[in-house]
Specification:
Radius of gyration: 21 Å
Strand content: 15-25%
Number of domains: 2
Largest sheet: 6 strands, antiparallel
CATH class of the largest domain: Mainly Beta
Strand order of the largest sheet: 9-6-3-8-1-10
Length: 288
């Protein structure tokens, strides 16, 4: 319906076991793989790369590639076309790999995967918009790696400096035992003053924001790792797994266990965003 610079063909979340192998192959479209966790060797043309969490590879058309896992490897994987000539030239001239240590693009991959699975109104257009953000992020990281731009990209600050300092404190200390007074002391204001400023500029109280921040961090851990829910609850600052489960249900409308099962049900599930695209399988189990 709308013109776009890109078209998403297919997306998936894959878990590669250590006895699997992605055979060396090539295709006529672009592909991008985001490695969430695990270790192994990724081959791109004639070069071999060690993979790490946050490794983000751009695979250009007709570029041979393959994967040899050394441990269980979790990935997000997208295949796409680029129809805008300027963007296509930028991607073809770019490097093949960046390190996205904060996995900033993982959420955008997940948005595409969810939109593709639900196939709602204008979902292909929305998938294209998310992919465009991913590609811009990739090109920006390429610039940073070459030293052409500032190495640090700060998040957009809120207008109020007190609230901004409180947000930064929560981001750095969310896993600790925090209450309103802890946060207020960190920004050298009273609890009442901070709560009023926070509600004005963020739209919720500091403690409510902390709760939502912890739940979002817990989802990130569940997506990327195989920690027990008790471990997840401790890592994001909850005093008990029961408190974590109640809070998760309050925010998300379901328990963390239920959310994990639904998420895992989509792993290794091909989602063809383009109705005429059929994904070919190159993964095999290694002998021995």
């Amino acid at each position: 319906m709308f013109t776009s610079a890109v078209q998403v063909l297919w997306i998936a979340r894959y878990d590669y076991q250590r006895d699997w192998q992605l055979l060396r192959h090539e295709h006529e479209y672009f592909q991008m793989i985001c490695f969430l966790s695990g270790a192994g060797q990724f081959t791109l043309d004639e070069a071999d790369y060690a993979i790490n969490p946050g490794s983000l590879f751009l695979i250009k058309p007709h570029c041979f590639h393959g994967l040899l896992p050394l441990t269980a490897v979790k990935t997000l994987d997208i295949k796409f076309l680029v129809t805008d000539r300027s963007l296509q030239q930028l991607l073809l001239a770019s490097g093949d790999r960046v390190e996205d240590k904060d996995l900033a693009v993982a959420g955008l991959f997940e948005h595409i995967r969810r939109e593709g699975e639900e196939a709602g109104h204008l979902h292909r257009e929305l998938c294209a918009a998310y992919l465009t953000q991913i590609l811009i992020h990739f090109l920006r990281l390429q610039k940073e790696a070459s030293g052409k731009t500032s190495p640090e990209l700060e998040p957009e600050p809120v207008a109020d400096p007190v609230t901004q300092r409180a947000l930064e404190f929560i981001s750095a200390h969310y896993a600790e035992d925090l209450d309103l007074q802890h946060i207020a002391r960190a920004v050298q204001k009273s609890g009442r003053y901070l709560r009023l400023r926070f509600e004005e500029f963020v739209g919720m109280s500091p403690m409510r924001y902390l709760l939502h921040y912890r739940i979002q961090k817990s989802k990130d851990l569940i997506r990327r790792y195989d920690y027990a829910l008790k471990q997840v609850s401790q890592m994001v600052g909850f005093k008990s797994v029961h408190h974590f489960a109640r809070s998760f249900h309050e925010v998300c409308g379901e328990t963390p266990g239920s959310w994990r099962r639904k998420y895992q049900a989509g792993i290794c599930k091909d989602i063809c965003v383009h109705p005429q695209f059929s994904n070919k399988i190159w993964t095999v189990r290694r002998a021995g």
